[in-house]
Amino acid sequence: MKKQKTDIKALISQMTIDEKIGQLIQLNANFFADSSADITGPWEKLGIDKEALKTIGSTLNFHGADEMVAIQKKHLEEDRNKIPMLFMMDVIHGYRTIYPIPLAMGASFDPETVTECSKMAAREASAGGIQVTFTPMVDYVRDARWGRVMETCGEDPYLNSVMGATQVKAFQGDDLSDRDNLATCVKHFAAYGGAEAGRDYNTVEISERLLREYYLPAYKACIDAGVTMLMPSFNTLNGVPSIANKWLMKKVLKDEWGFEGVVISDYNAVGELLKHGMTDSTKDAAEMSFNCGCDIEMMSITYYLHLKELIAEGKVSEKAIDEAVERILTLKDALGLFEDPTRGASSEKEAAVCLTPEHRDISRRAAEACAVLLKNDGVLPFSESTKKIALIGPFADSKEIKGFWACCGKDDECVSVYEGIKALLPDAEITVARGCSAQWNELDKDGFDEAVAAAKNADAVILCLGEPQKYSGEGNSRADIGLPGVQNELAALCLEANKNTAALVFSGRPLTLCELDAACPAILEMWFPGSEGGSAAANLLFGKVNPSGKVSMSFPKAVGQCPIYYNHPSTGRPKRKPEDVHQPYASNYIGCGNLPLYPFGHGLSYTEFTYESMELDTHELTKDGKITVKVTVKNTGDRAGKEVVQLYIHDLYASAVRPIQQLVAFEKISLSAGETKTVTFEISEPMLRFWDAECKHISEAGDFDLFVGYADHPYIKDTFKLI
Ligand code: GLC
After folding, report:
1. How far, in Å, CA of 650 to CA of 567, rounded?
2. Which terminus of the chain faces fewer neighbouring Cβ atoms within 10 Å, N or C?
3. Contacts of 28 (CB under 8 A, 6+ apart)
4. 266 flagged as catalytic
5. Which of 136, 94, 65, 118 is nearest to 343 (CA)?
């Protein structure tokens, strides 16, 4: 962080203990917005004294710049120390102009797209009064039943690390006091994505080795990138909730990683220690959390109720309180809040900055870059001269495509598929027939006949299917991750009526699409694409833009395969043949197979890419040496396109079993028709390190396979030795 402008230690020395504790509490904005009310308000329900509100250090969930400015102004009038409040929100994939959900941004495999979108979000959010975003969420995931897979960049630790660090740098910029930059908060530390059975908030029991190998790297990458805050997760980790988990919060985060930023609890996570059964007293909860390094308690008030007493009893040191306050004030100083407490936020600026054509363009291009062409038997792209188009399914003209955690984004500000196609092909005759609902328990088929008739009568049919945006995100896990309701039946009937059909899928997770895949010649995964989803879909369907996304999380054939992920060890009895024939005495399922329907890294294009060569400058890697890998790719098709060149390794033999394939590098390149490019990667010994059975981070000499391609699909293979 930049040089301090405020003498923070002097400021702390003049603060009372109550004022110091006030800095350690975060409450929703409604505690302050209508504080003109008399004693009955949210504060009375929570049990905090109205007078104490004047000392509170930060707030969240406010609505726009005007509210923020009013709260900040009133606070500075009332706060004896004139310490500005911090304003925080979840700007996860956009503030008002919404771009694709993070799982989709991972599928772009393009850090430049992530950077451009993050910077846009920071500009808009800052104009709206936000100074800190609770982003990036980098929880490693393997189970698509979990609703918050939408919020992460997928099942690969390396991809998650790259995209998490990219967000930190893009949101924060070079100087936090720059009004267009936001401080960031990496979450949820740790392993929230390992919730048993994919059920949100559920228990997480994983070995330290697995934790360090897969779940921790992305948090560390964000810390190395300079993230200013960290949020522990709700879940227990090996029996102890993260926020009270000394091993995690002190040994790993502070002693090993040296994290010096601000730690903030998740919403009432301190209070939930009682629900977890860690204690029956809020006083114990305060002591455990604070002594595990939680600086700010979000939306519970155990610190307000008990820290003074705990200090008096010697269970919490005032020195530790001062250090926590210093971390918080240092962040406020870095943001320039002491000189610039509202950072120029205003409703006028918000209106001028948000949802501009330029920002909509950024959102649309991101949605185009994130979409994954899962299947195409030649029906796509449709011709732009198509006259009669049928849009069928619950998402045909739906504007509910912004996804969960869309901050201040509004459904009615999203461009629907119908609107997108109408704008692109104004002369086409477009028939919309939703045909059925997307809700799991709405099985009405009265709309089928109209839909089938529309399909019969059309030159081209676009099935617009998916799960409602509220079926993913926080608290929204699913035990069945198929297309909800009767969508598959609707699709089958329409496909019988017209084979010139493509399907768009809107989802916050990989869905089980076997039935659709068996019947439909083309499937384009749109995820939840945000404000410009319909425009992006139109451009992709009619070939204005060539799809370039790649699967960031395996698409299971059946929910029974979950957790399913590409970077798994072999087992002693592997079955890896693609056909579903059950192989006795092997690790496999009867009637389903082990492989996903669409694997990590898979994604088609309207053109063809040929991998012409992969050359290593040496096949022996020394501890301090490197191998240069040159991969030559040619666009052998008839249109420009983008390809994600992916490099995988397999450590064949080691003292702890290694994954059969592991992404170690990728680069997204553009190639015009007929163009050839060579991508250069470097392999060095640190990239080969793993956590062994004793949890030492080591590499071991031996043989490695290497390939370019995507999971389970090598295009060119080679080998090398670490000597
Ligand atoms: C929620 C989420 C967390 C979010 C916080 C504030 O419960 O778990 O990701 O940042 O509360 O909204």
Report:
1. 10
2. C
3. 42, 59, 60, 61, 299
4. yes
5. 65
Ligand 1 centroid – CA 186 distance (Å): 11
Q: Ligand 1 pocket test: which of 474, 476, 477 has the largest number of ligand atoms within 8 Å of its C-beta?
A: 474
Residues lining ligand 1, Cβ inside 6 A: 60, 90, 134, 187, 266-267, 474
pLDDT tens-digit readout, 387-443: 999 999 999 999 999 999 999 999 999 999 999 999 999 999 999 999 999 999 999
Contact 457, 388 (CB under 8 A): yes
- Out of 201, 267, 404, mutate this one to test ligand 1's pocket (max ligand atoms within 8 Å of CB): namely 267
Average per-residue pLDDT for the chain = 96
Spatial contact of 185 and 228, defined as CB atoms under 8 Å apart: yes
- Structural domain boundaries in the chain: 362-561, 609-722
- DSSP category for residue 248: I
Q: What is the pLDDT of residues 509-555, one digit of tens each?
A: 999 999 999 999 999 999 999 999 999 999 999 999 999 999 999 99
User: What is the model's pTM?
Assistant: 0.97
Per-residue tokens: 694:
């004793």
The Cα 334–Cα 329 span in angstroms is 8
Residue 382 confidence class, pLDDT cut points 50, 70, 90? very high
Tokens standing for residue 309: 């007493």
Homologous superfamily of the 609-722 domain (CATH) = Immunoglobulins (2.60.40.10)
Give whole-number Cα distances, 458 to 386, 455, 462, 502, 570, in Å. 9, 5, 10, 13, 48
> How far is the centre of ligand 1, averaged over its atoms, from the C-alpha of 139 (Å)?
13
CA-closest residue to ligand 1 atom 12 = 90
Provide the CATH topology of domain 362-561.
Rossmann fold (3.40.50)
Distance 360 CA to ligand 1 centre (A): 26
Residue 352 CA to ligand 1 center (angstroms) comes to 28
Average pLDDT (469-486) is 98
Shared fold status for 362-561 and 609-722: no
